[in-house]
Design goal:
The protein has 418 residues and is of the alpha/beta class. It has two domains: 33 residues; 355 residues, Alpha/Beta hydrolase fold, catalytic domain (Rossmann fold, 3-Layer(aba) Sandwich), CATH 3.40.50.1820. 42% of the residues lie in helices and 19% in strands. A nine-stranded mixed β-sheet has the order 3-1-2-5-4-8-9-10-11, sandwiched between helices. Strand 4, helix 5 and strand 5 form a beta-alpha-beta unit. The longest helix has 33 residues. It is globular.
Length: 418
């Protein structure tokens, strides 16, 4: 028996017991119910489509570079035949790097725009779909229409014979360097050649031209199972790998600068080199500049691995830039203390010593110390442009904050490298 027949039978039965015009009353109520159901359904569908339209893409439009140059980009791979790959399953693998260059360009007409995240995008869409338990087509919508300001293989600008070089490194076991695109493009537009390193196995995804895809997931899973002591040892080891990668890259850039087939032939000013990084990449930049005489200055974006950074003065210009939320010492949760294997007193003691260490380093070197109001750790990258509600409503304002970060970076490098 269909639902409709049961419904009619019920109305007939009730009408025989009720002295009023029940069938008409019931029908009116039913119509109201149907109308309400249709209205709620329509509003729900409209809300879902409206939300998808609003968050597609999931990022606000990226702020445009503020320099006088357009931006070109090119990717180059390097293999260090003298170093074995520490993290590979095959102990005979050699350490290889994928480096994307962002550089000042004049002519971009006829050159293809670099798609955000390039070949990595489909993988990120799958990760997002899995993480949020949504169909893949919805994850694709979240990143639909994203655009950059960089042009693939555009010719390097000829306003100067050569340009200063900045090495950039990402955080540890997190997003790759090209998710700091707004900072990288802006720096290139002001006349810097930025060599952006993907440290394989130590960032979410590294893509090689031969089709290899290297993920940090196995190491991340191991890291999460480590004790606090083991995690610190791993961090120290990883940052040593960062530093070795940076040294190797500088050796390769010297060769590339002499390669007549390269777009960068004689265009890199290797007497004006600096390092910059976010989180662990910032810590690595400081320590790399401490030990390599070719590095003239360093910028640390919200990164401080206390057990790695030395106490001795560096005697090179430094810019330490932190978000105010990163420097806040808040009451720790019991879960946090358990995870970090700390007592409450030990936690506050650690935070106090860390802040003293920062202040001490900045007091004995040519150091600039900048705090970005309301900024959190992830705000020193493209994450700052994620739309609400995926980004907190009371987070730092995207455009104002990124403008402040970029202005400090450009001002510092203009002062110490030009």
């Amino acid at each position: 028996m269909s639902v409709l027949k049961v419904d009619n039978l019920t109305k007939t039965f009730v009408s025989g017991l009720w002295p009023f015009k029940t069938p008409q009353l019931y029908t009116a109520v039913n119509k109201d119910r149907d109308l309400m159901f249709k209205s709620v359904t329509f509003i729900s569908i409209a809300f879902i489509f409206g939300l998808l339209w609003y968050i597609s893409p999931v990022f606000k439009q990226f702020s445009k570079p503020t320099g006088i140059f357009s931006v070109g980009t090119k990717v180059v791979e390097f293999t260090d035949q003298t170093r074995k790959e520490t993290f590979a399953e095959n102990p005979e693998d050699k350490r290889a790097l994928v480096v994307r260059f962002f550089y000042p360009a004049n002519t971009t007409e006829g050159f293809e725009k670099y798609p955000y995240l390039g070949a990595k995008m489909p993988y990120y869409q799958k990760v997002v779909a899995s993480y949020y338990h949504v169909p893949e087509f919805m994850a694709k919508l979240l990143f639909h229409g994203m655009s950059t300001n960089s042009y693939i293989n555009a010719p390097l600008a000829h306003e100067q014979e050569s340009y200063p070089v900045v090495l950039f490194s990402h955080g540890l076991l997190g997003l790759p360097s090209d998710t700091s695109l707004v900072i990288l493009e802006n720096l290139a537009s002001h006349g810097y050649i930025v060599a952006v390193i993907d440290h394989p196995y130590l960032n979410a995804l590294t893509f090689f031209a031969d089709g290899r895809v290297v993920s940090s997931l196995p190491l991340s899973e191991q890291f999460n199972k480590m004790s606090q002591k083991e995690q610190k040892e791993f961090q120290t080891k990883a940052i040593d790998v960062y530093k070795a990668d940076m040294k190797f890259l500088l050796d390769e850039l010297t060769k590339l600068n002499q390669d007549t087939k390269s777009i960068l032939y004689h265009r890199m000013n290797l007497g004006q080199i600096a390092a910059m990084g976010h989180s662990a990449g910032g810590t690595a930049s400081i320590e790399f500049c401490r030990t390599d005489t070719r590095c003239k200055a360093a910028i640390d974006l919200d990164g401080w691995y206390d057990q790695v950074i030395g106490q001795e003065p560096i005697n090179k210009p430094l810019l330490l830039m932190f978000g105010s939320k990163s420097l806040e010492v808040t009451e720790p949760t019991p879960e946090y203390l358990k995870r970090k294997e700390l007592s409450r007193d030990r936690y506050f003691e650690r935070e106090e010593k860390s802040n003293e260490h920062i202040q001490k380093l900045c007091s004995v070197t040519s150091c600039s110390f900048v705090v970005i109001p309301e900024a959190a750790h992830g705000d020193f990258g493209d994450e700052i442009f994620i739309k609400w509600p995926l980004r907190s409503w009371n987070a730092a304002e995207s455009y104002k904050t990124m403008t402040m970060i970029n202005e400090h970076i450009v001002h510092f490098f203009n002062r110490v490298l030009c």
